[in-house]
Request: fold
Amino acid sequence: MDLVEKQKARAVQERKTKLITELYLMDVDKTRDGRKLEDVSLFTLEHEYINAKCRLGRELA
Reply:
């Protein structure tokens, strides 16, 4: 694995960690289909995060 690939992998892992932390703070610990947050792709985490933020916004409205 060259340097660029390592940097990309690290950036993806850092983003996943940040999203998981944010989702836990919003009381989300699993995806809508029941998978653990740690077991899903970055794409899925981004989708779950957007959905959680939208739900939170609707609750506050």
Notes: The two ends are 48 Å apart (CA to CA).
